[in-house]
Amino acid sequence: MNKLRTKSNIPILEIFGPTIQGEGMMIGRKTMFMRTAGCDYSCSWCDSAFTWDGTEKPIMYSPDKAFEEIYKIGGGGFDHVTITGGNPALIGQGMSELIDILHSKGISMGIETQGTKYQDWFSKSDDIVISPKPPSSGMVTDYTKLDFIINNIQSNKQNKSLKVVIFNEEDYQYAKNLHFRYPNIEFYLSVGNLTPYSEEDHTAELLRDLEKLCNKVINDPSLKSVKVLPQLHTLLWGNKRKV
Amino acid sequence: MNKLRTKSNIPILEIFGPTIQGEGMMIGRKTMFMRTAGCDYSCSWCDSAFTWDGTEKPIMYSPDKAFEEIYKIGGGGFDHVTITGGNPALIGQGMSELIDILHSKGISMGIETQGTKYQDWFSKSDDIVISPKPPSSGMVTDYTKLDFIINNIQSNKQNKSLKVVIFNEEDYQYAKNLHFRYPNIEFYLSVGNLTPYSEEDHTAELLRDLEKLCNKVINDPSLKSVKVLPQLHTLLWGNKRKV
User: Fold this and answer.
1) What ipTM was estimated for this complex?
2) How far is CA B191 from CA A26, B80, B171, B228, B231, in A?
3) What does DSSP assign to residue B133?
4) What would the mean pLDDT of B38-49 be, rounded to a whole number?
5) B contacts of A188 (beta carbons < 8 Å)
6) Max intra-chain CA distance, chain B
7) Smallest Cα–Cα separation from B30: which of B91, B98, B107, B94?
8) How many Å apart are CA A199 and CA B226, to the nearest integer?
């Protein structure tokens, strides 16, 4: 019994909320967050490096126990859960079971993943954000894998989008190429946060960077069907965790 | 010939863009704006009172001429037009023709209206934001009309949402009641701008109000399926017009 259970365990680094989703397609949505441990990437500017750099240890929860914790922490005042990481796509059976439990309680959910690994349970996710990492991350996109994922989710009815965080001109070109490669999936650009661990107020800087990115897109006739967004939580709460 | 044309003329107060949509369901979207003249409301805090208070005169354009102007001003670097007011739902045949022209050019469009008047062309709009005005506006919602509109757009495939601007506690209660009355339509709360004609920098104030509204929603277990958003353009560009 215990061995069977172990197969479904999910390595969890934090559960918090309800709060307001700060970025991408679901911006503004009241949601719980569950952050899984482990990542196949190590982006230079990762704002959640504690999920993969060994500084924090995950708790292993069965899907039932994960739901129980989400429910306890959220106090019942939510109907959506955002699962992010690390890379939640590294997890198989446990995630599939957790999604079924959430749906059975009338709770919708979404995931955010960089698009390096496909899981069958992607088709059950109510919303899915694929956020490939641009050159400034230091990571290299494997287009064979990304093509496979985009092709697989393309025909699903769920809300889906591509989101790229922009730090520099090279990132912007990378994002444009992605959009031209997958023109039929909603396309979001997000402003990069250069100081994800600073405790100072960077609001003015973040808004200035957002304005620059907006102006770039406004003046770029080759980019039309695009949404440019800030990280709302960073404007509101700085780099504080668990908000 | 001229008389026939007149029937379709659209009273236009401004056309600008491309820019980035600042609020609601289409937040972040690169789009052109066309603002129609005339409103059946006169909200106390209206940020576009020049559309109805007589201070500015509209130009009357045929749908063809309106498209020509949008295209000329936008320079071809767009594929979406947002039509706002004033109340664009006051306009009949001309709007229907303009939508057909836009669609024939591969351009999608959306409207924002307060939900006081239905038009058959609503069904052709790719996105539609119904933004009933809360008590602080001084306006009174006619629920017979609003029910009719919501019922009519409910089954359409287009993106649609309800959006309420919040200035105070009474507005918040009004918004909640709306959401409970129409639970199946996406529900957005937006932070009110108390100083829509000031030239000073109100960023800190606006972010503080947004934080307050977020905290209110976070701590309200009866509000679950909701999105809380700022007016991005006001954070970026203050109260400047035509951005």
Assistant:
1) 0.94
2) 18, 25, 11, 8, 7
3) P
4) 94
5) 28
6) 61
7) B107
8) 29
Where residue B2 falls among pLDDT bands split at 50, 70, 90? very low
What residues of chain A lie within 8 A of the CB of B17, using their CB? 218
- Residue pair B130/B157 in contact by the 8 Å Cβ criterion: no
Ordered DSSP codes for B161-193? EEEEEE-SHHHHHHHHHHHHHSTTSEEEEEE--
Residue B193 has pLDDT above 50, yes or no: yes
Give me the amino acid identity at A27.
I
Rounded CA-CA distance A31/A55 in Å is 26
- B39, B30 contact by CB (below 8 A): no
CB within 8 Å: B235 and A207? yes
Whether the per-residue pLDDT at A186 is higher than 60: the answer is yes
Which chain A residues are Cβ-neighbours of B217 within 8 angstroms?
20, 30
Question: Tokens 């109260």 appear where?
Answer: B239
CB contact under 8 A, A20 and B207: no
DSSP string, A30-95: EEEEEEE---S---TT-TTGGGTSSSSPPEEE-HHHHHHHHHHHHTT--SEEEEESS-GGG--HHH
User: How is B74-102 classified by DSSP, letter by letter?
Assistant: HTT--SEEEEESS-GGG--HHHHHHHHHH
Q: Of B91, B89, B73, B70, which Cα lies nearest the Cα of B81?
A: B70
Determine the Cα–Cα distance for residues B84 and B52; give it in Å rounded to an integer.
13
Per-residue pLDDT tens digits for A22-65 = 999 999 999 999 999 999 999 999 989 999 998 999 999 999 99
A119 half-sphere exposure, CB direction, 13 A CA radius: 22
Please check whether residue A61 is in contact with residue A15, taking contact to mean a CB–CB distance below 8 angstroms.
no
